[in-house]
Write a structure and sequence with these properties.
With 152 residues, the protein is an alpha+beta fold. Helices cover 26% and strands 20% of the residues. 36% of the residues are buried.
Length: 152
């Protein structure tokens, strides 16, 4: 069973320690490697900024254009189609053939199936109190909208 780790939502109580961030530079480097593997290019990289808890990059390859999302607390990546601003939960896509480049760089590639899973289908035991309060407030219907969000 997949486990959502403490801090993955981007929220924590004042008593909980900060998580080391996934550096945008590390993500950017992995995106450029992936683009080379896909015989494509990186069109843009956007670093996480409040309220977004994820970095994103657009990769254009001969097979099409995909947005790569990376949680800013955990090296978890997902793929989406047509994302330019806020994430549309219906936009999550299956990982492309070149997604293994991210695994080789130390990232966990999340499947479309996992992203679409309801929260009761994964282990949420490690989430903190502040995160549970946010989940109760925002009521995300799936893992993807919990791991990659713009809650404020």
């Amino acid at each position: 069973m997949f486990r959502l780790e403490r801090g993955v939502t981007g929220f924590r109580s004042g008593r909980e320690p900060d998580l080391p961030p996934v550096a945008a530079r590390t993500f950017r480097g992995a995106c450029h490697e992936a683009a080379r593997a896909a015989d494509g290019t990186v069109e843009q990289v956007t670093e996480s900024a409040y309220p977004r808890n994820f970095h994103s990059a657009v990769i254009r390859a001969p097979s099409g254009r995909l947005t790569v999302l990376c949680n800013d607390s955990y090296p978890w990546v997902a793929f989406a189609e047509g994302v330019t601003g806020d994430l549309d939960p219906k936009a999550f896509a299956d990982p492309p053939s070149w997604a293994g480049t991210f695994t080789g760089a130390g990232f966990v590639v999340m499947s479309r199936r996992l992203l679409a899973s309801p929260l009761d289908a994964v282990d949420t035991g490690a989430l903190g109190t502040a995160e549970r309060l946010q989940i109760d407030s925002w009521r995300p219907p799936n893992v993807g909208e919990t791991v990659f969000n713009s809650w404020d």
